[in-house]
């Protein structure tokens, strides 16, 4: 029985039994209907037997390599076109026309000669309860459990991959000798051969994934849906190894589904997008949610003409007209990632272009700042990557030299001018600054979309696409630049390097908050002293916010590693929970951003900024494409710190002081209070606050005539300084209306950015 959870109070359940069957690839084939507010179609899932029941030998990879040498050479040297295949298909709607992966943008994506180890990711999130007891089922059928919510599942069927033309080459290898040619076993062996192809065969692999997804069904499977899951079984099949490894699920979303939002854009036109729901993508398609389920995907999405489909994909999709008034968009990824990172946005988006601004222009970064530049330092790239095998940009010489990846900007029609004024110019500067700090961009291209006004945050990053709020477009470059830098940082921390346990959000948000300052400082090309003052001011603002949040939130939500020593443990089935994942208050909290930021800032102070950023770059090179825990980062960092600088710093002490307890570490409180005192004096900021407070009191006591004769002169302030001033004035018991008017006249508050307005 599935555990019933209170969606407003309890933990988020991850029901998929990934230890028994692991999704390796998704093929989505969908129609978007704005009249009914439904996305409908099918998804084909290709599985590999999980770690509990893996029966293949280590020799499989070698046989696969030799079997497809000739095919892979073809795929590496020529464009890969996927025509319609001559088999009966389950959907007459599906069409793939001239799928090409050899364009200029894609060449930097994949290195056909890359050499990786193929270590299986065997770690995952611990579980409080298994969904399905496989070991003690006696004669019971095996039950496949997928994460699913707010979906209408119409039919589930096994896919006859053996019916695909040309698939015979997957059955000729010597390792099939002596194995039964029973059709069901043959289908599973074909899928195994397909999902284990080496990375230099990625084009050929995608080709056959497409064809297999179009193959006819060969028998319906029994299924049932619960609050959080979809359970599938086949009569008489008792083990994961014998369960169909390619299944097709026909389904449709519900208008109230929590993974996507149906709304209108700022120009009043209908649109739908994934907005970063706490339940992730399980209300968009049935999937395996646990981070351990790293998979690739491809998707064909049909919609009415006039709409643009943007998605997490390596290719810059161009629409194909299927019939009058209907367009099809196709995207794919070859880097395995959690299904939760899949993102889609469909709307009447307009691409923002500026003819006078060249994307390929060389963007120079500030050479005076004493941070290491990675552009000429690739000594760590000589190492073999530690992730599962995929076409990796870190092994691609052209990609390693690409400071600015190709990018596009999309927005509703009414916001195009604002995007052209600031955003379009800032993207290459911020991308170049990120490259100068961390090195190789993990992803080959970037789309930036200004999402509708109901978007609940300032930004969200997904593979190959960033969502930004319209709020970042007002009040100049500052907020737009800092938020853009934050989301770009997630390409490394949050996407290319993911948390093995989702409760360790600080590994994504703490790093992005810390790195946004570094990236933005480089992008602005400030002097060393200006950068130092800017970083200190940011720290002061965040300190005040963290202090206030700690004083006004539940202690249990202030812990960065709430599962402590159980963090990262994997249950037998793979089912698990995300602690406090559905707690309503948690959505609005910033403790993982701020407390994580101050931990990283404290470590940087101990190590020294130059050495610290060099260690971050080394860490990225070592762990990209993998899932990590806090101790993976901390252990790697401490290895680079000379013993005389550690001052008793250990992984255990960091856990105790920073990650496993609520509140703020006392050592950090003392340090930050000292920094605040120095910062106020250095910026002459205390004098400015005092002037306004005295003026407020004087206005209350004096006449309007006298005030005009004794006008006070105030300094012009930067946006962050202005925020700090306003926060300080709010601590006064009373502010008279005239002082508010005076503030408006002095700083033009209505023209400032969203943070000042807030």
Automatic annotation (TrEMBL):
**Where along the chain is composition biased (Polar residues)?**
111-127
Q: Which InterPro entries match?
A: Aminopeptidase_N-like_N_sf, AOPep, ARM-type_fold, M1_LTA-4_hydro/amino_C_sf, Peptidase_M1_dom, Peptidase_M4/M1_CTD_sf
Q: Which Pfam families match?
A: Peptidase_M1 (PF01433)
Task: Name the UniProt key words of this record, in alphabetical order.
Answer: Aminopeptidase, Hydrolase, Protease
Which cellular components does GO assign to this protein?
A: nucleolus
Record keywords: Nucleotide-binding included?
Answer: no
**Keyword field contains Protease:** yes
Q: What is this protein called?
A: AMPO Aminopeptidase
